[in-house]
């Protein structure tokens, strides 16, 4: 614990005080942590490389294609059109709540990373057009994405926990909804009222000059193209439940439902609907795509650095040592599951790793203590969202996209995640009184 604390403090100081590039800071801290935690000298760099490869392997295609799609949505005027339709529907006064609802609906079928990249252009289009505070408008929508990622199947961590605890997927989803909605409201729009004055100049790649109304794509084309990844994922996710028995068809739909393929299909469609159909040629679109990748290159490096740090801590076995030492504490199983997940999350940065590790520790308690398995899934899911900070790729996504200082990212993102986690635990304990 002392080594982890030292490394986290060192990382914060290198980035905030020494002004070192975050990627370089992650590399230095990861190597230092590996050596201090007893990983053999000849295997430290292998752990760093594995961590970088593991996290980029799952996110590189999604983030790059999402950035290209976001750039196109912004520069084509589609984001401007979507913002106009939303504001006309609910009024500027309630635009924040409209974005929260959109984020929640999109967050249910969409992986967090895709949802984040997909919704950022929409957030920024509202911010630029109506000159609203970026964090105040954007954080509630991001909160809704985060809550669905941690609480609700079919996201990877809660889905895996349902299987591990022999819980019921539908029941867990219903309980999760009951907890998720108040968590989003309290940690989103209500908490964001305290963040109006945070200075933020969002990432320029998603900023587009306001276009005249007659040059904008139609509302249908704008919404359809921007939300196509969501529609494709929902379609492919529902396909197995339509009674189709043909194995070839199921394999094809599984292939088409892969997030990378979904984003590729969405970008190809957008290239036509928001590019060629709007009178732009492939050379112009190619420049936009190159610019989009340039703009997110530092974000990719920072995320890869956080993956290296997480892998070093995991390879050292420190996550299991922390969890086993906490198992001896005498506390209610639902609270214990939350505490173990929260501490591993704070130490390692990965919500998925925290959730699955905590599940392995408390699995026997679910049976011996007659704990409701659906509530244990949600308790651990809430704990796995606790206090995201510098070792979490989500922290850096939010910081870099919204162009915030470390201090303001702690004030906004980290506090929002902590509120979601605590409110989630409170909701679980309240439900436990009635179910």
Features of this protein?
0% strand; mainly alpha; globular; 435 residues; Glcn_transporter; Gnt-I system high-affinity gluconate transporter; 19 helices
How would you concisely characterize the structure shown here?
With 435 residues, the protein is an all-alpha fold. It has helices at 2-16, 22-36, 41-75, 78-90, 95-107, 112-130, 134-151, 156-164, 169-192, 219-238, 247-256, 259-275, 282-315, 318-327, 333-348, 351-368, 373-383, 393-402, 406-432. The chain has one domain.
Architecture overview:
- By secondary structure, the protein is mainly α.
- The protein has one domain (about 1-430).
- The protein contains 19 helices and no strands.
- It starts with a helix and ends with a helix.
Number of domains: 1
Q: Mean pLDDT, rounded to whole units? A: 86
Shape: globular
Strand content: under 5%
How far is the N terminus from the C terminus? 37 Å
Strand-pairing-aware structural class: mainly alpha
C-alpha-based Rg, rounded = 22 Å
The helix count comes to 19
Unreliable runs: none
Q: Characterize the largest beta sheet: strand count, sense, and whether it forms a barrel.
A: none
Helix content: over 70%
Taken in chain order, the helices and strands follow as HHHHHHHHHHHHHHHHHHH
Number of strands: 0
């Amino acid at each position: 614990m002392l080594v982890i604390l030292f490394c986290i403090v060192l990382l914060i100081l290198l980035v905030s005080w020494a002004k070192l590039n975050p990627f370089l800071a992650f590399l230095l801290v990861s190597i230092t942590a590996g050596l201090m935690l007893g990983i053999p000298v000849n295997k430290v760099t292998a752990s760093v490389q594995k961590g970088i490869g593991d996290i980029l392997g799952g996110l590189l295609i999604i983030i790059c294609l999402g950035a290209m799609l976001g750039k196109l949505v912004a520069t084509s005027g589609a984001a401007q059109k979507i913002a106009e339709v939303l504001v006309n529907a609910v009024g500027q006064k309630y635009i924040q709540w409209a974005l929260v609802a959109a984020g929640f609906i999109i967050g249910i079928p969409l992986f967090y990373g895709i949802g984040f990249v997909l919704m950022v252009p929409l957030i920024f289009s509202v911010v630029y057009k109506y000159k609203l505070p970026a964090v105040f408008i954007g954080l509630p929508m991001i909160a809704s994405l985060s809550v669905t990622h941690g609480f609700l199947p079919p996201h990877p961590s809660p889905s895996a926990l349902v299987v591990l605890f022999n819980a019921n997927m539908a029941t867990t989803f219903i309980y999760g909804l009951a907890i998720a909605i108040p968590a989003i409201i309290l940690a989103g729009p209500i908490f964001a009222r305290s963040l109006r004055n945070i200075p933020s100049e969002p990432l320029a790649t998603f900023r587009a000059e306001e276009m005249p109304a007659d040059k904008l794509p139609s509302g249908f084309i704008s919404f359809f193209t921007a939300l196509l990844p969501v529609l494709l994922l929902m379609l492919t996710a529902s396909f197995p439940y339509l009674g189709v028995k043909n194995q070839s068809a199921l394999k094809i739909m599984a292939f088409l439902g892969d997030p990378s393929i979904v984003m590729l299909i969405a970008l190809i469609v957008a290239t036509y609907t928001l590019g060629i159909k709007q009178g732009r040629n492939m050379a112009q679109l190619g420049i936009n795509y190159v610019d989009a990748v340039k703009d997110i290159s530092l974000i990719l490096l920072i995320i890869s650095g956080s993956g290296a740090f997480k892998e070093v801590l995991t390879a050292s076995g420190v996550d299991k040592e922390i969890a086993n030492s906490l198992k001896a504490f005498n506390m209610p199983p639902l609270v214990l599951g939350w505490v173990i997940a929260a501490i591993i999350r704070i130490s390692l940065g990965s919500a998925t790793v925290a959730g699955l590790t905590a599940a392995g520790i408390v699995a026997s308690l679910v049976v011996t203590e007659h704990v409701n398995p659906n509530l244990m899934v949600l308790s651990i899911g809430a704990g796995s969202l606790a206090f995201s900070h510098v070792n979490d790729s989500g922290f850096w996504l939010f910081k870099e996209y919204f162009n915030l200082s470390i201090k303001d990212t702690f004030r906004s993102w980290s506090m929002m995640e902590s509120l979601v986690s605590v409110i989630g635990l409170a909701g679980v304990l309240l439900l436990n009184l009635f179910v």
